[in-house]
Amino acid sequence: PFGYPASARSFLAFAGLARFHIMYAALLSSPATWREQIRLPHSTVLQMRIAFALAAVTLIPGIPLAAVIFRQLRDAVGWIAAAGAIGILWSVLTTFGLALLHIPLTVFSVGSMSALPALIVSLRRPLRRHARETVRGLSLEPGSVFVAAVTVVILSVPFLTVQQGLPTGDIQKAIHWGSRILTTGRLPHYSEALSWNRDPADFATPGLHALTAGVMALSGETARGPAWFALLAAVLLAGLAASLASLLRFQRLQFLPTLAFVFAVSQPRFLRYITVPGYHYQNLIGEIILLLAFTAILFLLTPVQKPRTRAGPWVILVGSVAALPFVHQFTAF
């Protein structure tokens, strides 16, 4: 309606959805009263809250940051995946910081930190202008969206049927330690693992557990919230392949980002990420941050970039290197 291309209208539509989620988060303080007023079934309210949690830890903080930092990405699917990955990095750093400062992880505290990048970008005129230019320059191919959506839906059938949307594997340990963070309001003491005849170093990934606690606090679900987050994270990890492919800029291979996404999703080792979300939860989040750092390195190596545009990729690279030891055990070793 404002003369924007389709990609900009999609961004405005998501902004409206994000605004609804923020309004919804404000209503969570008195759930019984407003639920009785609008008479929504409990399952619908739970689904809305899980959707709010997924957006709050990925796209709500990631889109404004990606619009300012990753301005050279033109493929919309790859750009959204990069935005979601940046949102996960932001959520790891903020939830870890809140727990480190003994600030309880609640809907208000985690939601406020998620909305902070959008607030900063909206208040700074140069950042707002750069964000608009980035969104207007995105190329959204309906075929790419269709192929990506159909691929994810088909591969997630085992998660929805066999697992019934419940977590399994390594994510159960993260849920346990995340529950401790929510109960105590601080980072867990991993010495408790000695009572299980386990080395505390086997569990010492406080950034990962703080992120999981943030998802649990926002979704109000200790099981399905983290499980759906693991599924979304797997999709974003495959989308980063499209982001890297779009940076190659092959003029005669416009389908390369979509092909990279399909190849990444269908890779035998990757299939467990999306068919059994949470099975290798620690590796999943670690690989997202690792590939995000690699994407930032590619941006820094691009010779056509202006010097003033290098600050953003440097921030992503430093943040990724700082966060990786706290979310991935082998990186810490």
List the helices and strands and how they pair.
Blueprint lengths: L5 H22 L3 H8 L3 H16 L1 H11 L6 H25 L6 H17 L1 H12 L5 H14 L1 H5 L9 H14 L21 H14 L4 H23 L9 H10 L5 H5 L5 H21 L9 H17 L1 H4 L1
Helix pairs in contact: 1-3, 3-4, 3-11, 4-5, 4-6, 4-7, 5-6, 5-11, 5-12, 5-15, 5-16, 6-7, 8-13, 10-11, 11-16, 12-13, 12-15, 15-16
Q: What does this molecule look like?
A:
- With about 325 residues, the protein is mainly alpha-helical.
- Helices cover about 70% and strands about 0% of the residues.
- It is built from 17 helices and no strands.
- The protein has helices at about 5-25, 30-40, 40-55, 60-70, 75-100, 105-125, 125-135, 140-155, 155-160, 170-185, 205-220, 225-245, 255-265, 270-275, 280-300, 310-325, 330.
- Helix 5 (about 75-100) crosses helix 11 (about 205-220), helix 6 packs across helix 7 and helix 8 (about 140-155) packs parallel to helix 13 (about 255-265).
- The radius of gyration is 19 Å and the shape is globular.
